[in-house]
Design brief:
The chain is mostly helical. It folds into two domains: 170 residues, no CATH class; 75 residues, no CATH class. 48% of the residues lie in helices and 9% in strands. It has a three-stranded antiparallel beta sheet. Helix 1 crosses helix 9, helix 2 runs parallel beside helix 6 and helix 2 packs parallel to helix 7. The longest helix is centred in the N-terminal third of the chain and has 26 residues. The chain is elongated.
Length: 328
């Protein structure tokens, strides 16, 4: 029975080789030379498959036999009085078997179009392809989401592991669009005011590829964000501040430029600058407090701009008058 170290070593080796292949694939991807495009397809396909295998090894129990996890063919064998299933050869799984084993392991199905690149790679290896450099690039780019998904399953940072190659991948327009749409979907369950748009931008690197770490979460206070570009994370009120800035930062800038206030205010209840007040929204997106009613002295309508922070039943002017009276 293999020990934990064997499985750990295999995981490390698979991941290292996958990253090396992906890096070489992206380097070739950047070239317009037809031969290097074919090399790009081979290297990137190999790296993607290796990274997927690493996900399976990572998901298996620590003392599992690596070939029981990755073996392609198995045979029934009688050993003593026991009937066991053992790998029939040293061959490991291909892409179709990888996808099936992901399902068997309860892992999310690989994103992107892994089949397209696999067919292209097989044609290059065994037959012939009439695909030009642009078609090859498109097939590789269609697998960028697959690679990102595998990195997420492994809990690794593509920025740290791939370096400049990750920057190249992010610059591809089709990848940007697909990942931006996926990021947006992670906020669908969040219980926001209906009129609040969600278009966050990372405060560290400026990327729009910001996602909620737990797409099932519906509570704004429990939001945890991760930037797919630089890996930075935000939670609690800082996460909401990122969303508020993305939704209302432009409006706040224009108001300040014109000498006006809003729509972002400090909340009289929790103190965070997450109270939104405009024609459509009137609430703190962190604590849920809403300024409402009229001043109990003068009857003036209360809003976040004039309510007293100590006594929410008074406007700031009459709260000031009341405090002066108390100290006479």
């Amino acid at each position: 029975m293999p020990n934990k170290k064997i499985t750990s070593d295999l995981l490390q080796g698979l991941t290292h080789n996958a990253i090396a292949s992906l890096r070489m694939g992206v380097e070739d991807y950047q070239s317009n030379d037809a031969d290097r495009q074919l090399s790009a397809a081979r290297n990137f396909a190999a790296g993607t498959l290796l990274l997927g295998k690493a996900c399976l090894v990572n998901a298996a129990p620590p003392n599992s036999d690596p070939m029981a996890v990755l073996g392609a063919k198995f045979s029934p064998v009688i050993e003593g009085n026991e009937f066991v299933i053992k790998p029939a050869s040293a061959a490991t799984i291909d892409v179709e078997q990888l996808k099936k084993r992901f399902r068997d392991f309860g892992l999310p199905a690989p994103r992107g179009d892994l089949d397209r690149l696999t067919k292209l790679r097989n044609a290059i290896e065994h037959l012939h392809t009439d695909q030009g450099p642009q078609q090859v690039k498109e097939a590789i780019a269609a697998c960028f989401p697959t690679v990102l998904g595998f990195f997420e399953l492994l809990g690794r940072s593509p920025l740290e592991d791939l370096g400049a190659a990750w920057e190249t991948m992010q610059a591809v327009e089709s990848f940007q669009k697909e990942e931006a749409a996926r990021c947006a979907k992670t906020f669908e369950a969040v219980d926001w005011p209906n009129s609040l748009p969600i278009r966050p931008e990372c405060p560290e690197c400026g990327s729009a590829l910001v996602a909620q770490k737990n797409p099932a979460n519906s509570d704004p206070v429990m939001i945890k964000l991760r930037c797919l570009s630089c890996g930075s994370e935000k939670d609690d009120y800082q996460a909401i501040a990122v969303l508020v800035e993305g939704a209302f930062g432009g409006e706040a800038f224009r108001a300040a430029r014109d000498g006006a206030n809003g729509p972002i205010y400090d909340c009289p209840e929790c103190g965070h600058s997450l109270y939104i007040a405009n024609s459509e929204v009137n609430t703190c997106l962190y604590c849920g407090y809403e300024v409402d009613g009229a001043c109990s002295v003068c009857g003036e309508r209360l809003g976040v701009g004039n309510v007293d922070w100590e006594d929410h039943s008074l406007c700031s002017y009459h709260a000031y008058v009341a405090s002066k009276e108390r100290y006479r």
